[in-house]
Amino acid sequence: MLVPRARPRSAVVFLHGWKATPRSSGSAWVAQFRPWLDHLASRGSVVLFPAYQTGGDGQGPGRVASLRRGLETGLARLRLDRLPLVAAGYSYGASLAFAYAANARAWGLPQPRAVDAVFPAAPVAGAPLPPLGRSVEVVIEVGDRDTVAGRSGADAFWSWLGGRGRARRLVVVRSHGSFVADHAAPKLTSAAARRAFWEPLDALVSRASAS
Predict the structure, then answer these.
(1) Gyration radius from the chain CA atoms
(2) What CA–CA distance (Å, rounded) separates 168 from 181?
């Protein structure tokens, strides 16, 4: 959890991708995104980085249940006091961001005002995914050189959302120059990566805070 120095104006739930190896003191998963998370905190967001992959969760719905437990614990400690909240996720975490947003009310948790899905994996098999309220703004990003997640997950979520709307966008992140929009690109801190990934989330948080 990261807390801004000044009074927080918003909250971001940031969900990491699926990991093949467990966390260790020398390889904290949060480190992969720490510059991005620090940036969000510097702009006034409380950032919650839930531990949903703890080793005891099973396939499919078990992983969503693990996320729910992590959110319940983290959000109870945060005491958001009605701060506008945005759910953001990368790869498998993007799929979980949709699971959270779609089930928030049923879970008794704060409803995200927006979802930022960066290179999403497929919807979680066997886990409930009820319709998402149309007031929730959504940005889905896919990389033109991403051979890990590809477009299949993004297209599945786009179909679930019902296609284009005023507050719904599916964006193809294009490679250019030395910037390659492969699956690892969202972990970069280059100027091109910040424009491609940080700026859209900043915009979502700003709009959520203003609404």
Answers:
(1) 16
(2) 21
Residues of the chain with confidence (pLDDT) below 70: 19-29, 52-59, 164-165
Query: What is the spatial distance between Cα 84 and Cα 173, in angstroms, rounded to a whole number?
Result: 27
Tokens for 174, please give them.
């294009």
- Residue 14 near residue 89, CB atoms below 8 Å: yes
Question: Which DSSP symbol is given to 143?
Answer: E
Mapped onto helix, strand or coil, the DSSP state of residue 86 is strand
Whole-angstrom Cα distance, residue 47 to residue 161?
A: 26
All domains in the chain, ordered by first residue: 10-210 (3.40.50.1820)
For residues 209 and 211, give the distance between their C-alpha atoms in angstroms, rounded to a whole number: 6
Q: Whole-angstrom Cα distance, residue 146 to residue 125?
A: 22
- For tokens 């260790």, what's the residue? 24
The model's pLDDT over 161-176, given as tens digits with 9 standing for 90+, comes to: 997 667 999 999 999 9
